[in-house]
Each structure stands twice: as structure tokens, then as C-alpha cells.
Amino acid sequence: MPTDPAAEAAEPSIARFGLGTAAVGRPGYITLGRDLDLPAERTVEALRERTHALLDAAFAAGVRYFDTARSYGRAEEFLGAWLAARPQEAREVTVGSKWGYTYTADWRTSGVPAHEVKEHSTAVFDRQVAETRALLGGPPDLYLVHSVTPDSPALTDPALHARLASLAAEGVRVGLSTSGPGQAAAVRAALEVTVDGRPLFAAVQSTWNLLEPSAGPALAEAYEAGWLVVVKEGMANGRLADRNATGPDTAALRALATRVGASCDALALAAVAAQPWADLVLSGAATTGQLASNLEAVGLAPGADDLDGLAELAQPAEEYWHTRSALPWA
Questions:
Q1: Which of 27, 60, 176, 280 could form a disulfide with 230 if both were Cys (CB 3.0 to 4.6 A apart)?
Q2: Which of 273, 265, 329, 263 minimizes the C-alpha distance to 301?
């Protein structure tokens, strides 16, 4: 790791990091080890308190970007209540939310056919944008179409584009999040979407981590086009956390973490922040201890040789997403 003053100046600032609420807005999610992280009784009140504690800790640390979504159970409600109770803090933060998935688990973790159902239609947009406004106390700063894939109607539906353009005219930054092995194709298709001759989208939130870096070149193109680029799942749903990064596929990460005296999670997030196109890197922490560990990435600046060594962790995109799809909701 570089330690000279010039290298230290290149360390990512806290402004590069945000807090996501996917892991604490509902009782079930696919992050590994959640059974160890959340209260035994995952009541609405218990997760509200956990969410508020995380928001307090993140704000105190200097984090100013908070991410949520309609499908994250009651996460928008929890964040909206936190903002309403803290008007000074609310003026300082940027809020991103997403629409396009409907939460269907009814606060259960098992016996659920589907925890969320995706539909990128005008009817769902009309319903969910109203819900988001009500729960957050106004429109979010960013509003993203949730989990766009190359075949999504969000890339081709003129009526939906008109609605999104109208929202953008209010001052909301409109964009999309992506998932699946076709992330790069979805981003590049979105770059071509226009309304009245002007680009529609201006932000993207994509998965990029040491195991799944395939979207990187497309995200660089989005950044060059002036988009805000937000990176999610930088720890691969917990697969790059110390307690889970134990197999041969993560040996290079463990070795570098040991050499520089860092946690695997902080180093994994620092590798994301080292990408020149990454404006914001999300922590998906479920405890304040995890958040503090994640934010230690601020003091790390992996050099070119370090990043080259970590590149060997990359998996074929199809393999990565197949593994992710098999992670249990717990």
C-alpha cells in the first residue's frame, strides 16, 4: 500500500461512500450472515431502531448519501422518519431511491413464493413514485428504475420515458440500477435513450466488485457521459467479508489484507473506490460495527500492483450471478 504523501492524497474521501438500506429495511435478505447481524426478533420496531442507529452512525462519520428502494420492505419509511426527525441533517444529505420492484413478503423470511416482484410499467411507476414521495416527505434526489436488464421495457417504452422526463424536469436525477450478467449491455442501451433529442438518464447504480467487474468499461462510458455512477454490492453480498472470504477464490484478498493490516471488507470497498469512474460506493452494513469497518476503506489506497493482484479474483459474470441467485433469503 502506498504510504507517501502523494499517495495519501489519493485516498478516497468519506464523501465517496454512501449507506444502503437493503439489509435492514426488511426481515429477509440475501446477505451472508444476516442471522448473526440482526436482532433475534426482527420486528418492525427492532429494524427501525437498527436503521436509525446506522443512519446516525453514518452521518456522524461524514456519510451524506443514503440509498433505499420501494422493495426494501419499510426502508423508505424508516429513512423518511429519520429525515423528518432531523431537519438539519436532512438538508445536508442526498437520498436515492428506486422503483420497479414491489415487496411481497409481508414481513416474512420463509414460506414466501417471492420476496419481490419486478415490473417496469407506467402503472407501477405511477403508484410507486407517489408512495416514495409520501414516505420520504418529498421526492428523492435520485430515482432509479430498479434492476434494469437489457430486455427491460424501461429502455424502450415511450410512455414511461415521458413520465421519467417529467420527473427529471422537477429536478430529480433520473437513472437506473442494473443487475445480472448483462449489466454492461443495459448501461450502454440506456446511454442511447433520449426524449425530445436529449438523454433521459443521468445516473446508474450497478454491481461492481472484485468477483464481478464486468460492468466496469460500460460504467466508465456512463461516467464520461456525465452520469452519476453509484456502485452497489461492493462486498458481493457478504462474500468478501472476513468471515466469509475463506476459500481459494479469495486468497489474494486475504493475503493483501494481512500484509497491509486491513479487513477484507475495507480493502474490497477501497478497490471499488479506486476505480476512477466510481462516484459513490455503497456500504450495505447491517450493524454499526460493520459500517465502521467498511468505512476504514477511506484510509486505504490500493496501488496498481495491488489492484492487479486482486484482479485474479474475477469470475465469469454468468458464474457470479448464478451463485448470487442461489443465495438464501434469511
A1: 280
A2: 273
pTM for the model stands at 0.95
Q: Which residues contact 316 (CB under 8 A, 6 or more apart)?
A: none
Domain count of the fold of the chain = 1
Burial classification of residue 225, based on how many CB atoms lie within 10 Å of its CB (0-12 exposed, 13-18 middle, 19 or more buried): middle
Residue 330 lies in a domain: no
Q: Which residues have C-beta within 8 Å of that of residue 32, sequence separation ≥ 6?
A: 237, 238, 239, 241, 244, 327
In a domain, 251, yes or no: yes
Q: Which domain holds residue 275?
A: 5-325
| Tens digit of each residue's pLDDT (9 = 90 or more) over 104-114 | 999 999 899 99
Segment 180-206, tens digit of pLDDT: 999 999 999 999 999 999 999 999 999
Give the best-scoring range by mean pLDDT among 6-10, 71-75, 108-112: 71-75
3-state class (DSSP) for residue 190: helix
Q: CA torsion sign, 120 to 122 to 124 to 126?
A: positive
Residue 328, Cβ density class (10 Å: 0-12 exposed, 13-18 middle, ≥19 buried): exposed
Q: What are the φ and ψ backbone dihedral angles of 152, each rounded to 5 degrees?
A: -70, 140
Give the count of beta carbons closer than 10 Å to the beta carbon of residue 204: 29
* Cα(212)–Cα(315) distance, integer angstroms: 6
Backbone angles phi, psi at 284, to 5 degrees: -110, 35
